[in-house]
Amino acid sequence: MASGESILMVRREEGVARIEFTKKDILDESNIQQIGEEISKIIDQSEQPKVLISFSNVRHLSSAALGTLITINNKVKNKGGQLRLSDIDPQIYEVFVITRLNQLFQIHEHADEALSSFA
Known about the structure:
Layout: E1 8-13, E2 16-21, E3 25-26, H1 29-44, E4 50-54, E5 60-61, H2 63-78, E6 82-86, H3 90-98, H4 101-104, E7 106-108, H5 111-116
Parallel strand pairs: 2-4, 3-5, 4-6, 6-7
Antiparallel strand pairs: 1-2
């Protein structure tokens, strides 16, 4: 991957940073680190960030990526913000259930539903 090329597609909608992945597999450690850094910058740009991460394009996710999501969640909460996850593949969602991360995150079936859930 060329340096500076983003793995994320970010657009702002109704005051929410809506993030989607451009890759189907979020497995590589350097990609996961880059994702964490890019999302951290988005969080840092807002006093009370509202972040929606859609997994509509993602088919495989590593445990390191889950760790990055927990870090992102903590950053958002520390700033009094809100984080929503959506469009998670059923097989990936099983991992969230097994690890009980489905209880930590607000997960919605579709991005539009998640978008309308922000206060």
